Amino acid sequence: MALTEAQVQKLNIQFKGIPPEEIISWAVKHAETPVVTTNFRPYEVAILHAVSGVRNDIPVVWCDTGYNTPKTYKHADEIISKLDLNVKLFVPKQTTAHRDAVMGIPQIDDPRHAEFTEQVKLEPFKRAMAEFKPDVWFTNLRKGQTAHRDSLDILSLSKDGVLKVSPFYHWNDTQLDTYLKKYNLPNEHNYFDPTKVLENRECGLHS
Is the pLDDT of residue 203 over 60? Predict the structure, then answer.
């Protein structure tokens, strides 16, 4: 789906306050190769439920760093089964055990942190995008998560020209809690991202 920045801005005005399902339906109707990405962090189940409710066969790209908590892995399995998701798993080329032995998890000020982030997150993500070549990318980005994400909106264009669709962009945690309760969806807050260190730091995929 080829849109200009001006068209995206106009659509964002129209879509504000529109139910996520309607935004997703619009995007699916115009998409040729849509994907949804997830890391099964808190509230990810909302976007997975909403997208799969519109079209269940959309590839769900899960780039697993290998450092998730046991609760996150159990949560992921529960959601995958409950929603019958079409999960496509991408993992780093080096095992976690090997990396732990030679590098560990570098702190943010460690020169190796960039290499670590590339290995566990960016390279698997680039590999996934190269395989699926999406024109529409569903995400659960929300306003207030990071400074960079505050500059985005429901619709935004990635640096590669892919249309990112974040139908819950203007929703807060309370609204999402209500959504999850309405549809009897599980949530899990025991989540660990080894590349972020700080909760409000951008993960690298969206910047």
Answer: no
